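Model: You mentioned two targets. I'll fold them one after the other.
Researcher: Yes, keep them separate.
Model: Target one:
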Amino acid sequence: MPSSIAWQKSSYSGGGDNNNCVELGCSSTFVQLRESATPAVTLTVTPHRLSGLIRTVKAGLHDVRSTDDRYHLGR
């Protein structure tokens, strides 16, 4: 993986330095994801696999079902 990837921070993170969020970086064949609080740890996937993950997340297939309020994601 090239070390000079330009990372893009999520627009949902807001401004400032203390707003940790997911960052995305692309190379010619891979997409890398990382948490801005721990930038040394990255997840590397192909664009095809990432689009599949996004599609299933949007469809709600990964929603946590619980009566515990700590696990209600946007509900």
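Model: Target two:
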Amino acid sequence: MAEMEMTVGELIEQLEQMDPAATVRLATQPQYPFEYSISRAAEAEDGICWIGQGEQLGYLGEEARDALDWHR
């Protein structure tokens, strides 16, 4: 899995292809995957957009791991 940085424009482009009513979650740790809610998004003075982690909701399901190409 290649590491990459994403711009706000690239994220918006991907999100525009999705259902606007879909719930947003944060997936972390591909080798031991968890899912979190999103608490907020903010832009810092350094020009970086930060997405804040909300509550841990549990382990990331198989369907989400497949969609993210996070195979064990």
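Researcher: Noted. Anything on target two?
Model: The radius of gyration is 13 Å.
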